[in-house]
Structures are given as C-alpha cells and as structure tokens.
Records
---
Amino acid sequence: MMVLLRLFGAASFEGVALQGQTLAKFALLWAAAFLLLGFAEEFVYRGYSQATLSDGMGFWSAAILLSAIFGAVHYFFKPMENWMDGLSVGLFGLFWCFTLWRTRTLWFAIGFHAMSDYADMVLFAQPNTGNNGQRLTGHLLNVSYHGPEWLTGGPRGTEASVLEFLILILLVLAFARVYPRIEAEHVASDPE
C-alpha cells in the first residue's frame, strides 16, 4: 500500500517520529496492543464462531456471514466510517477465513491482522477513525498523506482507499500460490 501511495504521490516520508527509549517503549506497547487486538478479533470472528457455524451451515457460508458482521460492526460502530471501509474490512475478514481454510489454523490470520494494523497505524502513522481520524500517539514514522480520500482513505486510513481492493486481490492470489489447497480427510467442515 505504501509503495502504491508513494508512486501516486499521495504519501511522503518525513523521518522518524520518536527517538531512543521513547521509540522502543511505544514500539513495544503498540505491538502488544495490536497483538491482543489480533487475537481478540480473530478468535471472535474466525475462531470458535467460525468452527461452530461451519458445522451447521458449511465453512464458506459461515465465513461470509461472520465477515459481513465483522465489516458491519466496523461500519456501524466506529465513528466516521464509510461504506468502502466497511466493505474492505469485511473482505479482509474473508481473506483471513481463506487463510484459516488453507492452513487449518488461526495463527496466520492473527499475526497478519496484528501486523497489518500495527504497520498502518503505528509504523506508517495512518489516521484511524477509532482515534477520531487522527494518528495514534507514539507512531514511529512521520508520514504525510495527501490527495483525494478515495486514494488515501482520508481520516479512515487506507482501509477506505480503493487501492485496498487491489491489495486484497494480490494477497489472495499470493496466499493461494504459497499455500496450495490441502486435502483434509479429517476435517468434517471442509467446504467441498
């Protein structure tokens, strides 16, 4: 995302925001916070609920339902969200369901979720509606975002950028190539 924004002239890097112990402190605190967020959201939307619903309605039906709820919760309960943000969050949910389906474990989804949020909001100082459209205190780099909201996401961050949909397509294709389908004879909720 940052490479694309830079190519389109919509992001400028202006240096490191913190130094020394302050940098280390915020880097570690935010890493712990986003790891906990990754665990929480993945357990709620792709953990037990996914496994339980899959038994009754099939893996992909459950994945679509839970991902729609995941996107709707972000859209309706976070301030300043727009339809593009809710849709991209829901599609990210489907991507994480795909990683669960291919790997048969939540670990990839938890790690990817935590790291992508950390990179967006802490490393690259993207605004977030959960922080009233502002950068987080303790972000690591000073990055300026400029250009139309459809490109940068505006106060919602890049989750509300049209580029997010291109990134999602590339992620699915790359993941499908790296993690080919496993024939799982022991999984009762296999979608096929």
Note: The first helix runs from residue 2 to 7.
---
Amino acid sequence: MDNDVPGTDYCIGFSTCLSRTISLTHSLRTSAGSHERFLVIEVFGRYAGFTALLPTMAGAANRCVIPEHKFDMEKLCEVMTADRKTNPSLYSVVLVSEGAHWQGGEVVYSSDETDMFGHKKLGGIGEHVGNALRELSPKFNNGRRINVISQRLSYLVRCGDPDAVDSLVPMAFGNIASTCCWTASRGAWSACATANTTTSPSRSFTSKKKVVDVDKYYDRDRLRPIYKSFLQKPLFIVNND
C-alpha cells in the first residue's frame, strides 16, 4: 500500500490509499477553513513518502514532509503560514509521513511494540508537527498564534473496497503469475513498469529499499513535490528508480 516495493512502479493497494487520502483530506478542509487553522494530516509511510507525495501532487495538500528528507520545522511553518495567508478561507494543509522527522529530531514511535519483522510501531509525528507549528506560528504571523487541527488517517485509507485500479491490477498480476507457472518461468514476480504489466526478477524485490528519489521528485526548499514535465511518465508519475 505504501508503494515501497522495489522492482515495480506499482504495488497493490496504492491507488486505493491515494484515493482515500485525497478524499478524507478534502473532507477535513471544511473544519480547517471554518476555524482558520493549520491542518496536519499523518499518513502511512515508514521509509518511503509516496503516500504523502502523490496526494500533495494531486492538490490535496499545500506541503508534505517525507522520510527521505529531514525537514526544517521553521521553514515548514513559514511556508504553511504563507499558504494560509493566500487562502481566502485562511487555512493550509500539510501531509506528514509517519516516518518523517525534522532536523534535530528523531523518528516518533507510538509504542515499543514490534511487528513480525522487528519494526517498532510508528505513529504520533503529526501531533509533534502540529504542536511545533502552533508554537512557531507567531514568528511568521505578526505575533498571533495559529491553532492546528491534527488528524491521523491510519487504517481508514486501507480498509473497505478497493478502487477501480486496485480491482484491475491484482487480476492482471494474478494472470501473469499463472502464465509464469504454466510456462515454467521461475524466479520472477508480477510487476508494473511505466504503466505496462511485466515480470521482474524476484531478487529485485529484496535487493534494496524503494524510496522517493528526492532529487527528481521532491523540492527540499519548498517542501512539496517537483512539478516538472509529466510527459512520458507512468500512470502514477513516479518511476521505480
């Protein structure tokens, strides 16, 4: 669902996650606007920031912070305040990956409990970011504090029915897998590359971590996606690098 598996441009569940994140963020805008606040939304993303980057690229948020880049909290507050001032409803939105952390800070864990792979459970970075933005806001808002609405989307983005893409892709992947079985092809997994279904060597899925290429897709200074030419890009813009 985080789209963080190497060897493929697309992972099953990613489209549904994006659709829900965009929809829920737009729903929460009404509360942020009526109270003229910052809206801080925490989404999944332990090592990779795709689930924050792509909804922001689609217009769901003004800014996003991702695990691949240690962000400057004051810079985030500065640009969020500027975004809020230019919004007629006086609010701005940031999506925060659960694995993100700021300069001088550490990854935030919700508990010491570990999963089957030994990873501690992440969660709570959104609250930390929200509190910091509230305390820093007078510096960029003529001495007046800006309050914050902080929301963790958590499992809301991965429950319920899949969207259209996530109904079609698993069928195609399953078809490719069965074809490999019938043709005695070994050592390959179903994958998607530049919007085409294909196979990928199984070793590619364990050889490295798939993360956002910050130089290609993330503006470190503006804390948002890079909006350059999308010509000849795959369906979800970001290639498997």
Note: Strands lie at 38-43, 63-65, 92-97, 109-114, 120-122, 148-152, 188-193, 196-201, 218-219, 224-225.
---
Amino acid sequence: MSVAGDAPLVDSHVHIFTHDMPLSPNAWIRPNYSFTGEDLIATLDAHGVRHAVVAGISLYGYYNDYMIEKLKQYPRLRGTVNIPPTIELRELTAMKDAGVVGVRLFLSAQLSGDVADLRSAHYQRLLKHVRELDWHIHFLADESVFADALSVLRAAGVKVVIDHFANPDPGQGPDCPKVAAALKAIDAGNVWMKISAGFRFSPRTPPRRPDDYARARRIEGEFDRYLLERVSPERLLWGSDCPFVGHESSVTYRDTLSSFEAAVPDAPTRRAISDTALKFYFS
C-alpha cells in the first residue's frame, strides 16, 4: 500500500469532466456523474501524488474549455487537448500559457469516426506547430494505421507519447504488432510509452468479474516486466486513468497505485519512471 513518501510524483493520465459537458457523436458512454478538477486534486492529495496530466478524453470531442479552466486554476496540473487540425497558432499559444503540453490524437474509427490522414496539409501544419511549441503528440491508433502513423509523426520531428501500453488487442499482450512498432519507435528516439490503465486488460465489455481484474493485474505486471527488459525507465510514464470511466464500481485509485507497485516492485525503478514524467511534463 502506497504512502505519501512512496507515491508517484506524477500521474500522467487522468480525466476531469462535468456531467453536462457536450458529448461527441462518437462517444461510447455518457458518465452520469462529474469528476471535477477539485475532485482530482482531492484524490491526488489523499494518496500523496503531487502532479497530474489531464488527458483529452474522446467522449467530449474538441471541447477543452473545462480542462483549460482548471489548468489555469491549478499549476500542479498539465493537459493534452483534442483539437481540429485547422486550429490557429494563436489559439495553441493561449493553451500553452494555460498549461497544455500536447495534442491527444485518436486514429481510431471507433473513437473518432474517420481516421485522420496525417500526411494531409492540415495535419502537417498542425505537427509543425506542435514541434515549434515543444509539445508532444499523445497517441492512440488502430493496428491498421499504427506503425505508419508513428513513422509520419517521427518524420515530422515531434515528440510522441504512446498511450496505454499501445492499447494491444485483447489476448495479444506484448505479441501485438502495435507493441513491436512502439518498441522500434522508442529505440529510434523521441518516443515514450504510458504504462497506464492496466485494469483495462479486463474484458472490454461488461459483465466483468473480480477474477477478470485479477487477470488484468497479472497481465499488467507481465507487460511492465517485458517493457523494462527492453527500454529504460526514462522512456516510460505511469498513469492511473482516474476516474476509470466504465470501471468506476470495480477500480479505485488505491488499486492503481497497488498495481503499479506490484508490476514494478523495485522502488528506485518506480522513482525513475516518476522522474521521467516530472521532467517530461513539468520542466
């Protein structure tokens, strides 16, 4: 069980929202509750975590106003935004001043409808702005476009954070082709991976049983060990995915801290992963 002195310095993947925010047409669920910036700060304080990175959430499309309001209010937070590729540089600069550090990019028909063409003029312009702002691309993609999209992003010279263990398909784990492509990109440089939301290795649709979550925790541990044999902690970022949308009744913040400790039992390695996040998001 974590105590404040051993808790991660940074939770690199959380969400905040209100129940009445405008929903995306592609949203897979509508939460019937709010998890506000104040709820997040209280959760961090209760578990001894200093900082957090608010991830743009697919459910609300390009609506970033609430997140940006809370980034301004709480300097211990940073954020990544969902934005259209036609957005103007002045808007991005204002977001940076508020605490935004990157762009969330969903290349998934399920989450975003049409899959964006990163080679298009609009996206090449956006990637240029990302590079100039010293932001990163917070990246999640379907297997059919994953490796090619990573190549385009790296060619654009932007930093890339690959989300949720590369989001392997159920049952594939480290054998997923996306994981192989991710490791190749990490080896080439300027790419990081989030070891976040291990509980999502449970079945993607309910019902889910307690032993499903126990199995997910075992997979998370195996995955972390696999990654740490191949990349350094300086390329990994831990995140909880709080407030665990779709899993709220089965997962607690304490559970995610415990899972991280079990998956990475060496305290200096966990601290190195924390230091990576602190440097990446807050330096």
Note: The domain at 4-282 is CATH 3.20.20.140 (TIM Barrel).
---
Amino acid sequence: MSLEKVFGLAGQHAVVTGGGSGLGLAIAGCFVAAGARVTLVGTNRGKLEAAAAGLGSAAGLAVFNVADLDGAEAFAAELAAGQGPASILVNNAGNTVKKPLRDMAPADFRAVMDVHVGGAYALSRAFLPQLAAAKGSILFTASMSSFLGIPRVIGYAAAKSAYVGMVRSLSTELAPEGVRVNGVAPGWIETALFRQATATDPARRERIEARIPIQRFGQPEDIGWAMTYLASPAANYVSGHILVVDGGALHSF
C-alpha cells in the first residue's frame, strides 16, 4: 500500500466543530490536504463561509451551537442528508472563562462545561450511527490543562480533563463497533488567540517559551497533522490515546 493511502484521508468526510478559525481551521486544512471532505461547524456563519472559501471546494459548513445538546441528533441527521454521512468527528469547539475560583459563578462554570463536555457527548452520540457505519473515528482536542495545574481556569481544566476520561471510556465502549477514539493535547500554539493573550505581557510569553525544550511555540498545522495521522489508516490500531503535541513541555523539568 502506498504512503498516500496509508496516511491519507481520501473518501473521508470529517465534521470539525469550532472549524471557523484557530486550531479547528488548521485541522480542517490538513484534512483537506490529505484528501478528505470537511464540514466546518460553528455559530458564526460569516466566519465559517470565509474559512470554507479559503479551503476550496472540499469544504462545506453548518451553523450549529454545540451547547444545544437536545438538538444534536437532528443536526447530525440534517448534515448527513445535505452533505453526506460523517466518517470522522472532531470535537474541537471550545470556550473559556478566566477567573479565580472565588469569582467564578456557577453560570460561568456551566457555560464552559456545556460547550466542551456536553457538546462532545451529544455530538459523539448523535453521529455514532454514521461513524460506526464508516468504521470511522472520533477525535478530541484536549489541552495542557488536561495534565497541568493551570490556575484561574477551573471550568476549562475540568472540561479538558474530562476529555481524557471520555477518550478512554469511549475507545473501550465503541471498539466493537469499529470506531476508534483518540485525542490530541496541544501545547502552546501560535494562534491569533494566543498572540492576543500574550501581546500585552511579553514576560509571560518568555516564561512559557523558556519551559519548552524545543524552544519555540508550535504552529496550528502541528496539531492538524497529528489529527490527520490519528484519523488515517496508519493509526488503525491506535485507540484510547491522547497524543501530546507540545515540543516536550509536559515532561520537561
């Protein structure tokens, strides 16, 4: 078998939540380069249209709020009818509230958990018949906060830690149906959001970079290619794994 077939995604249809920008868009771009069709999912139609146009004819879009847990089944059915059944689902949509615990209201915490954990649960369940029919895979975008104690983001840390448990549990439960489940945990990646967050605090940016053994920040495509590998036939015996893509930061001392 050729390398193109082993590591490629020809004939696959990937649904990428949070696909209009940042890591989601980079993941979708790598999938398209590997031969897949993609559907970008988000709440901002204008952003999705611009992103899909940039990816070309292999990209479509669908407007949906992943926090609408009760609407997930209807959304999955509508998407399959309009754009074809999915063979890959990427649970990437995310949000965060950065506050100390004393100031984080229950609504703040719920808002983060609803998007990450609730949304991933509901969409994984809703798309499961399609994924099982295709012997496809579910992918999760985890985080350094899945493993490290990062302060003032308790909701985000709880949600991303939950992703690790979801990957482990679902990989075991869904294996008999031929569905693989994995995740990627990005380190510090040069996205527009990260640049914005560190633009006014160069000392913080320097501290973060100093703890990365490779001595640079990652690029969005580093995450996209990791996801591509996990979705490809090359990883057909890989399930229940969180692939950390962080330049060695997690294990540095």
Note: The first strand starts at residue 13 and ends at 17.
